[in-house]
Specification:
The chain has 12 helices and 8 strands. It has about 260 residues and is α/β, with parallel strands linked by helices. The structure holds adenosine-5'-triphosphate and magnesium ion.
């Protein structure tokens, strides 16, 4: 089992959108995939549950009392349009997560709650995708502890790279190494924005092979699919952007196996 954390403390860069569509792609390729929502905004939860809001057990319960609520209790089959999505499971979240995490600050091993839970299910899944919140809270630190690879989306705005150095510092600190297994990719790429693309490419060049070749374009159907509570794969199977998610999945698998 390999764990990929989709992380960037900057908001709105496409973490959740990527988590949803990458999970769907891995599942389509036959990998037993678990998508875990670590953001109390619960956007991925709503989409991958086919529009549900209420769940018997969520990741909040696991963080609150792991002994009583193991992660297996929270995991449900992902759904789209009333049908289960083959090979794809979801661990939902809810709005209580922020408060629960605040209260965990006094727990010993509080940074390893998720890591320990994932150890108990490591034979059941091939890949786990973590959708992180837009901050470096204890929830994100749990994701950092658990992850084998960090996938950092960078959007197409002029401030896209602000905070990237801080994020990499935080990853190095938590992982206690200066050789963190991370990759960066461009999301919401728009070919026409030449000036900004040149600027970003130049900056990203410094990261060398940490920058993935795949660029996910800005495409309306990607946003529309999320509004309809579906991955792009089921919402619009003819979308050209599915090729980009396929390419992204391929590059990530190569990094995981490296
Ligand atoms: N490639 C894309 N093409 C078109 N729209 C996109 C694309 N990627 C993301 N979006 C849209 O951009 C918005 C922000 O995306 P998303 O919610 O995935 O970001 P996020 O990083 O998870 O945000 P947050 O930091 O709040 O968790 C959403 O409305 C989403 O539909
Ligand atoms: Mg998000």
């Amino acid at each position: 089992m390999k764990v990929v954390a989709i992380i960037n403390q900057k908001g709105g860069v496409g973490k959740t959108t990527t988590a949803i569509n990458l999970s769907a792609q891995f599942a389509k390729e036959g990998l037993r995939t678990l998508a875990i929502d670590l953001d109390p905004q619960a956007n991925m939860t709503v989409v991958l549950s086919g529009g549900q809001f209420k769940f018997e057990t969520t990741i909040s319960d696991v963080f609150e009392a792991a002994k009583k609520h193991s992660i297996t209790k929270a995991i449900i089959p992902a759904q789209a349009d009333g049908d289960n999505i083959a090979n794809l499971s979801l661990c939902p979240t809810d709005i209580r997560l922020s408060r629960v995490i605040e209260q965990s600050l006094t727990k010993v091993h509080r940074e390893r709650i998720l890591f320990k839970q994932l150890q108990t299910i490591k034979d059941r899944y091939d890949v786990v995708i973590l959708d992180c919140p837009p901050n470096l809270s204890l929830t994100s630190v749990n994701a950092m502890m658990a992850a084998d690879l960090f996938l950092i989306p960078v959007d197409g705005g002029s401030f896209s790279l602000n905070g990237l150095a801080d994020l990499l510092d935080a990853l190095e600190e938590v992982k206690e190494t200066d050789d963190v297994n991370f990759v960066v990719f461009r999301n919401e790429y728009a070919k026409a924005n030449k000036l900004i693309n040149n600027f970003l490419d130049e900056q990203l060049n410094e990261l060398g092979d940490k920058v993935l070749k795949t660029k996910v374009p800005r495409i309306e159907a990607i946003g529309q699919a999320s509004v309809s509570a579906e991955p792009l794969l089921t919402y619009k199977p003819s979308s050209v952007a599915l090729n980009d998610y396929k390419a992204l999945a391929k590059e990530i698998i190569a990094r995981l196996n490296a």
